[in-house]
């Protein structure tokens, strides 16, 4: 990482430096919250969790060559320096911001109700054709994950793609204060976290908090097909760049085709220019993701060839529209998370594939007072897409089953006999629910039995 001394860190977070004064100019090599990941030169974050208190591991980390601990209480007779703060979690955000400010590089901040992770990966694939690019790993997109992502940027990073996930007002403000994006990307304003945000207008308000902390002269890349985002005419005095499937957008697509082997072919269009691309994934929404990446790429000076090569190098992450071909059936493993917007997108993808179609769907969480209606309406949508069979698991998903004329079960175990009886060779099976429903167990069950 770039030079970052204990003195700089203490100043950044207004912490009290406790220990040998002669070590204040020691440079750290990494920031770690897990004592098992500590290495020579690490700054250890002592965080008090629900089950484990990181303060209990400070001395162990010192033995493992950590140079300092950021903590709320220093151990008695600590053998190495500590930076003491009222809240380790609050302090690491300030430290993350200070470290980000050491970089004068393109930083793409990305958010949205649906597709932010797959779009982040597409942006990374495209920008990596020109720049040494850093990205958010896994689900490190919250108020701890974002500063950890920033603090893990190597010294020679030339561009960064930082994902920001929120569930309430104010969170995006705090995240973007750290990220200070030079390009802001928003994918979709959907029906998610409505318990806190109320409705889609609330989601729009919360997501666009990002704009106030964008760097001067930042660019804004928004999904013009989204009825909420398309109403944004100017941001900080600048016209947004709109992307989407509709030809009204600055970046749009035509000639979209499923290749039949788990890929999508499309032509990306902008500025009287066409780029033919091959996307190694399923779902028309992946074309939208590619358009967002193309828009960012063009703003940053990439060639058409670099954009096409980047799109072609995209890799699916985890249980996000991952197609598994067992030899008997195709499984669309999309069980990382779910809300009505993302489920509809997945049903669209399913409906466009060859073969008899089965959707195994579960509860969608954090939808607020309209949760039952939103589940029922999602079921009606599934029925409208001619999905042959809908099987649901969970109390809320019973309403989805009603809307789809499907079959509802309380638990995964209860549903297994019906799954075995229903699915036949040649079927395409979508598996999707909120992460807490543990639908990865259904994916494993399908793989074992088909």
UniProtKB/TrEMBL annotation:
<keyword id="KW-0547">Nucleotide-binding</keyword>
<keyword id="KW-0067">ATP-binding</keyword>
<feature type="binding site">
    <location>
        <begin position="112"/>
        <end position="118"/>
    </location>
    <ligand>
        <name>ATP</name>
    </ligand>
</feature>
<dbReference type="GO" id="GO:0005524">
    <property type="term" value="F:ATP binding"/>
</dbReference>
<dbReference type="Pfam" id="PF02875">
    <property type="entry name" value="Mur_ligase_C"/>
</dbReference>
<dbReference type="GO" id="GO:0009252">
    <property type="term" value="P:peptidoglycan biosynthetic process"/>
</dbReference>
<dbReference type="GO" id="GO:0005737">
    <property type="term" value="C:cytoplasm"/>
</dbReference>
<keyword id="KW-0963">Cytoplasm</keyword>
<keyword id="KW-0961">Cell wall biogenesis/degradation</keyword>
<keyword id="KW-0436">Ligase</keyword>
<comment type="pathway">
    <text>Cell wall biogenesis; peptidoglycan biosynthesis.</text>
</comment>
<dbReference type="InterPro" id="IPR013221">
    <property type="entry name" value="Mur_ligase_cen"/>
</dbReference>
<protein>
    <recommendedName>
        <fullName>UDP-N-acetylmuramoyl-tripeptide--D-alanyl-D-alanine ligase</fullName>
        <ecNumber>6.3.2.10</ecNumber>
    </recommendedName>
</protein>
<dbReference type="InterPro" id="IPR036565">
    <property type="entry name" value="Mur-like_cat_sf"/>
</dbReference>
<dbReference type="GO" id="GO:0008360">
    <property type="term" value="P:regulation of cell shape"/>
</dbReference>
<feature type="domain" description="Mur ligase N-terminal catalytic">
    <location>
        <begin position="27"/>
        <end position="92"/>
    </location>
</feature>
<keyword id="KW-0133">Cell shape</keyword>
<dbReference type="GO" id="GO:0071555">
    <property type="term" value="P:cell wall organization"/>
</dbReference>
<dbReference type="GO" id="GO:0047480">
    <property type="term" value="F:UDP-N-acetylmuramoyl-tripeptide-D-alanyl-D-alanine ligase activity"/>
</dbReference>
<dbReference type="InterPro" id="IPR036615">
    <property type="entry name" value="Mur_ligase_C_dom_sf"/>
</dbReference>
<feature type="domain" description="Mur ligase C-terminal">
    <location>
        <begin position="320"/>
        <end position="434"/>
    </location>
</feature>
<keyword id="KW-0132">Cell division</keyword>
<dbReference type="GO" id="GO:0051301">
    <property type="term" value="P:cell division"/>
</dbReference>
<dbReference type="InterPro" id="IPR005863">
    <property type="entry name" value="UDP-N-AcMur_synth"/>
</dbReference>
<feature type="domain" description="Mur ligase central">
    <location>
        <begin position="110"/>
        <end position="296"/>
    </location>
</feature>
<dbReference type="InterPro" id="IPR035911">
    <property type="entry name" value="MurE/MurF_N"/>
</dbReference>
<dbReference type="Pfam" id="PF01225">
    <property type="entry name" value="Mur_ligase"/>
</dbReference>
<comment type="function">
    <text>Involved in cell wall formation. Catalyzes the final step in the synthesis of UDP-N-acetylmuramoyl-pentapeptide, the precursor of murein.</text>
</comment>
<comment type="similarity">
    <text>Belongs to the MurCDEF family. MurF subfamily.</text>
</comment>
<keyword id="KW-0573">Peptidoglycan synthesis</keyword>
<dbReference type="InterPro" id="IPR051046">
    <property type="entry name" value="MurCDEF_CellWall_CoF430Synth"/>
</dbReference>
<dbReference type="Pfam" id="PF08245">
    <property type="entry name" value="Mur_ligase_M"/>
</dbReference>
<dbReference type="InterPro" id="IPR000713">
    <property type="entry name" value="Mur_ligase_N"/>
</dbReference>
<keyword id="KW-0131">Cell cycle</keyword>
<dbReference type="InterPro" id="IPR004101">
    <property type="entry name" value="Mur_ligase_C"/>
</dbReference>
<dbReference type="GO" id="GO:0008766">
    <property type="term" value="F:UDP-N-acetylmuramoylalanyl-D-glutamyl-2,6-diaminopimelate-D-alanyl-D-alanine ligase activity"/>
</dbReference>
